From TrEMBL:
Recorded name of the encoding gene: 8051827
Matches recorded under InterPro entries: DALR_anticod-bd, DALRD3, tRNAsynth_Ia_anticodon-bd
GO aspect biological process, one term: tRNA C3-cytosine methylation
DALR anticodon binding domain: residues covered: 397-536
SUPFAM superfamilies linked to this entry: Anticodon-binding domain of a subclass of class I aminoacyl-tRNA synthetases (SSF47323)
Name of the protein: DALR anticodon binding domain-containing protein
Organism lineage: Eukaryota, Metazoa, Ecdysozoa, Arthropoda, Chelicerata
GO molecular function, one term: ATP binding
Organism: Ixodes scapularis (Black-legged tick)
Length: 536
């Protein structure tokens, strides 16, 4: 459900019907509302250009048509308003229908189709790793790509050239152990494959990648590095291809998606190895129902900080969180004698030392994952600027998850004690009672999160069918926005109101809202390879 996309398609058709060459732009106003405005428009359509004057007399027609057409949408438009002095047409959504539609898609599990004879196979290949910050970013992006393919019910295999530094492998990923260069197979049948390749020149012991691409009709300048030409059999690219051929044997029973994950500095070598592999081994699958794909996920790497290793950086994050447990508690109910947050956790929450150790590990993993995935994929990360920012980390997301879990647990305990009735079914909840602006802002935040979650990923770049992006930074930004919005809502609105009859329907609607935020947090954090904390 993408309301803005439906609006855009409607406006495109309307402009075509009115013989207007330019499509009217649509803006979301959900996060730029003016103070004091009770119900600002959710979207606005700009009609202020001189070329739009022809539409001014037809704005009522636009509004009437939009109301009529949107009546069949999952989230219809409730009203449109415009003034002659304003260059905008305001669009208000039907809020009750919006909550019902969004929550329905969040909580109703869609049955996976089993019509395909075989699952899609994806091999994530990470050949160039060391212990630098750039390598950690490569590792994180590879793990994120694995999670994306797993959500598409793919059979995912991962190879990394060294054991992971910080990433726990997701359940369901087939992990291939590291293979040293000396262990790469040099069997006779492999050499015969090389000898039979028509792009191989025995005199120079090189492969002509350019000839292969020209014969395939590929525009090298728009897809590949312009320097792609010939590759010698003793080059690092050829060694990488031999490694890839060896580890892919278990995946080659059918066409697969092969994804290289490398920093920009290794992009050229990865393309050479990928083309060698394609011409030598993937040609056997051409002409089938599904063509094999060789894709490249490249990133901007990291500007390495001076005199700081990744281990030092990781240790600083760990120490900061451990020290947080030893700080004086701010609990007003405690005596003034020295009492730390750790004491409160152990005594008040019934936790153990192992619980604290586990919580610290999760918080460090959260910070590291979001630290390395929150920047645009094509930009270089300046790690030196991040070293002194431990106190401004992403820990608050786990705090939000723990706070929601605590509220829901408190409610369940009250239900067991008979203080509250059990939560009604989703279809029985009255979402018209979610009439506060902060609740509507949460709807917008949730909508953005799920739109990003359901987008195809990894997705090929526009104009380049071999390079992909995963947009992890956009999902990270949406997650942070959801966490901030919920914190603002929680500070203003009491969820567990008095169990009086006239308040119970509002209570149920708000609990479903909490559950929607909780499930969204869990789903996104799982995409990042993280678990959520129930106590903090």
């Amino acid at each position: 459900m993408d309301v803005q996309r439906q609006l855009s398609l409607f406006i495109k058709d309307f402009c075509a019907a009115q013989q207007l060459d330019e499509v009217l732009p649509i803006e979301s106003l959900s996060f730029a509302t003016k103070k004091g405005t009770k119900q600002p428009a959710d979207y606005r359509i700009f009609v202020g250009k001189p070329a739009h004057r022809v539409l001014r007399p037809r704005l009522k027609l636009l509004a009437d048509e939009l109301l009529k057409v949107s009546a069949s949408w999952p989230v219809p438009v409730a009203k449109c308003h415009f003034e002659t002095s304003s260059p905008y047409v305001g669009v208000h959504l039907h809020r009750t229908a919006a909550f019902q539609s969004l929550f329905g898609s969040i909580f109703v599990e869609h049955t996976k189709k089993t019509l395909h004879v075989c699952r899609q196979k994806a091999l994530i290949f990470v050949p160039f790793l060391d212990k630098s910050f750039s390598a950690v970013r490569t590792e994180k992006l590879a793990a994120y790509a694995c999670a994306c393919y797993l959500e598409q019910d793919a059979d995912v295999t991962l190879y990394m050239s060294r054991p992971a530094l910080v990433t726990r492998q997701s359940n369901g990923v087939n992990l291939i152990p590291c293979i040293a260069e000396s262990e790469i197979d040099t069997a006779t049948d492999f050499r015969s494959v090389v000898e039979r390749c028509k792009y191989y020149d025995r005199d120079t012991s090189t492969f002509s990648l350019r000839s292969y691409l020209d014969e395939q009709g590929v525009d090298v300048s728009s897809n590949y590095d312009p320097n792609v030409d010939s590759v010698h059999v003793e080059s690092s690219a050829f060694v990488t291809m031999r490694l890839l051929a060896q580890i892919s044997r278990g995946c080659m029973s059918e066409p697969l998606t092969l994804l290289f994950v490398v920093p920009d500095s290794k992009s050229f070598a990865a393309q050479q190895a990928g083309l060698l592999f394609e011409m030598l081994f993937l040609q056997q699958f051409l002409g089938g129902d599904v063509a094999p794909k060789v894709l490249y996920l490249t990133h901007g790497g990291c500007v390495e900080p001076i005199d700081c290793s990744f281990e030092t950086y990781q240790s600083a994050r760990d120490n900061y969180i451990r020290e947080a447990f030893r700080r004086p508690s701010t609990e007003p109910s405690l005596s003034k004698r020295s009492r730390t947050a750790e004491d409160v956790f152990l005594e008040g929450e019934g936790g153990t030392k192992e619980d604290i150790k586990s919580s610290v590990a999760v918080l460090v993993e959260t910070e590291l994952a979001l630290d390395f995935l929150s920047s645009r994929q094509n930009l270089r990360m300046k790690m030196g600027e991040r070293l002194g920012c431990a106190e401004n980390g992403h820990y608050s997301l786990q705090y939000t998850a723990a706070r929601i879990a605590a509220v829901l647990e408190k409610y369940e305990l009250a239900v067991n004690e008979g203080a509250y009735p059990a939560l009604c079914k989703l279809e029985e909840a009255d979402f018209s009672l979610l009439n506060l602006q902060p609740e509507w802002m949460l709807w917008h935040r949730l909508s953005i999160c799920w739109r990003l979650l359901l987008e195809p990923s990894p997705a090929t770049l526009h104009g380049n069918p071999i390079k992909v992006e995963v947009n992890a930074h956009a999902l990270c930004k949406a997650l942070e926005g959801l966490g901030s919005e919920f914190s603002a809502y929680y500070s203003k609105v009491r969820i567990l109101v008095q169990p009086e009859q006239h308040l119970l329907k509002t209570l149920c609607a708000r609990l479903w809202l909490l559950k929607a935020v909780q499930k969204t947090l869990q789903r996104i954090l799982r995409r990042f390879g993280l678990t959520t904390l129930n106590k903090m």
